[in-house]
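(Deposited chain)
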Amino acid sequence: MTDAATERRNVPMASPDRGTVLDLLRRNAIQHPDVPALFDDDQWLTWSEYEREASVVALALLDLGVQHGDVVGLHMINRIEHALCDIGALLAGATPTSYYNTLSPEQLAYVARDSACKVSIVDASQVNTWLSIKPWLPDLRAIVVVEGDTTSAEVLRFEEVTAIARSALDDRIAEVERAAARVRPDDAVTIVYTSGTTGHPKGTIITHAGIRSVLDGVLARVVEDLGERPEPGRAQASYLPLAHLAERMITHYLGCELASTVTFVRDMRALAQALPAIRPHVFLAVPRIWEKFLGAVTERAATERGALRRALIRRAIVIAKRVGRARFDGARIGPATRLQHALLDRLVHRKLRAALGLDEVIVAVSGAAPISVDVLTFFRGLGITIVEVYGMTETSAVLTMNSMRAPRLGTVGTALPGVELRIAEDGEILARGKGIVPGYLNRPEATAETFVDGWLHTGDLGRIDQDGYLSIVGRKKEIIINSAGKNISPANVEQAISGASELIGTVYVDGDARPFLVALITLDPTSWRDWCTARGIEAATPEQAAAHSEIRAEVERAVRTGNAQLSRVEQVKRWTLLDGTWDGVTGELTPTFKLKRAVIRDRYADTLTNLHTAR
């Protein structure tokens, strides 16, 4: 037996569950070696192959000089290499940090420098950006490109450095095992940069212990609701940016906890086409995605061939919402409605679930923003109970989770085990527990301001009922106080309007110190063309679409529908449809699609003033 083999036997990669993410990988490789773990572009990796290939990446990083605690930057789409490099960096003792693909060069330079990135592993499309910012990154030692040809001496090919490491792994596995054995629960598992709605984004230090605490809480809630632990090999889809902690938590970390099979969707715009093939058992979506699913069904009811089919789908939507609402309220469902629901489930609902690719879902999750009652009731009546969760980057993603058996409308559920919540005198939600992060990277003042006496000040306003269910009132710094002194949550108003039509994208509501609310409305960048095509509307640009009378009539209808769900003081009195769309590149939205309110107020100041003062 070689010295290396002896060392491998005596130095375990991860001792039996010390409380790190690496322990989950080791467990899965031992207990579920042949279960598929990752799938992407016709490439499969089992859990044993996942561990070995991640070890190859770890050895390559060690050879590049990466040391314990160094940051390895990941700037890739959702793909197998993203997961392998993430776990590979952890095995090397480093801290993997994913950067949003939509960052401008200036924003990327800021986060890469702030995190002291030592090695960056990037898609071919990002190489030139990294070369352009390299002079401003004194800690950067190497740029490694995945599936890219390069003539630059400053860029290494991922396939070449991993091929060298792979050929040497059997003889040098002990080096990886020693590096992995040094990883402790309090070490950083990643650094996640907050959205930067005000000022520069903050690097939030997420620990292994925090992630494992949240995973334990989520799994306990799932097992309580399902009556059993989901079996290994359950399907999941990874499509939201892995720089977003919610995506990391549900598909990457929870995928490791459950030994799931994760399929990567490289382009989020292809999600609707990909889901029927994936048929996920556990599925996370932000509210806008759930709204688009409902919008697609509603659109089908308007454009399906044959009057009878259209009428049948419309009736199926009505009955699903009626039954869903009754189930939420615990109300009795009359015999006529029960009969219609059973019939429509066979004729329509079952086909709709399959068409959406959600016919196998056992855990459906929504988070990151408010979701409309309309969406929740429809899907519950369709046979899919969406579980709302609440949390933030600073809580390792999840603080509270609703029940799948008895969810409460208007709430985000109760605190996970080990989490304490309380409401401050001004209504702010405070939290503490093992999942709360230790603070921000290089930002001691911000850390001291946010984490006070062991309590995280979330910045959100909320209420807790007698049963411990939390309701979110709004964001503390975003609450609108109108001229009559009424407090209004703009997010609730914006969601009510945007959720009323598949055509509408982002909505911004304004009205601080004003007598009424006004709104800036944009077209949905992913659906406005299809909406126009289905109705024979010729429009080559958002500007042309925004000027069309039928488009404006649909927006008017959506505003009326949204207003009908709101109290009088919350209703939008005037609005304008902008002739462009918003995203992270245009500057109005963060990479996680949150509104940059200060930017919008400044950029559209004249338009807002005209809306408020027009006669």
Observations:
- Residues 197 and 597 are 7 Å apart (CA to CA).
- The first strand starts at residue 36 and ends at 40.
